[in-house]
Amino acid sequence: MLFFYAGTALLLLFSFIKDRRKSKQALIIAWKRFVRIAPDFILVLILMSLILAFLPNQVIAAILGNGTKWASVIAAALIGSVTLMPGFVAFPLCGILLKQGVSYMVLSAFTTTLMMVGVLTFPVERAYFGTRATLLRNALSLVTALLVAVATGLFFGELG
């Protein structure tokens, strides 16, 4: 992680050397966005931490980790498909779930469907793109998410 901080600092320094005004303007924009997102982010992290603190590990494991690998992946994909959650909340949540013992393959299915499959957003998407295109996009996204989960399982040695 230190590598990323150091790299960011060097790139920011380079940006300041190249154009101080644009760099300051970019930092102001980034700060405003951070301030706008931070309360929601903190609230969701607190709520998720409380839920996970009071929810026994056995329940989490039963839903996302104790069954067969494939049942857990399908459960995670279904939950991700019907959940509406921004990425800046989903990824820290997955970090918490990983510490609770949920596998990478299951987390991959959850996050990929969360970002790509939109059951709750279906009516809005249908209004813009039509029913056929929306169904096709969601179906292809679900298949892609499952393929990503399998690839993640292979990569991390969770399959086989």
Decide which structural class fits the backbone.
mainly alpha
Tally of individual domains: 2
Largest sheet, in brief, is: none
- Helical amount among residues, as a percent range? over 70%
Spatial extent as radius of gyration: 19 Å
Taken from the alpha-carbon principal axes, the silhouette is: globular
Topology as a string of helices (H) and strands (E): HHHHHHHH
- In total, the number of strands is 0
Task: Give me the number of helical elements.
Answer: 8
Strand content: under 5%
Mean of pLDDT: 86
Are there runs of 5+ residues with pLDDT below 50, and where? Answer: none
Report, as a whole number of angstroms, the end-to-end distance: 31 Å
Provide the fold topology.
Layout: H1 2-18, H2 20-54, H3 57-64, H4 69-82, H5 87-99, H6 104-116, H7 122-129, H8 131-155
Helix pairs in contact: 1-2, 2-5, 4-6, 4-8, 5-6, 6-8, 7-8
Written description of the protein model:
- The chain is mainly alpha-helical and 160 residues long.
- Helix content is 83%, strand content 0%.
- It has two domains: 1-54; 57-160, no CATH class.
- α6 packs antiparallel against α8 (131-155).
Summarize the entry for a quick read.
This protein has 160 residues and is mainly alpha-helical.
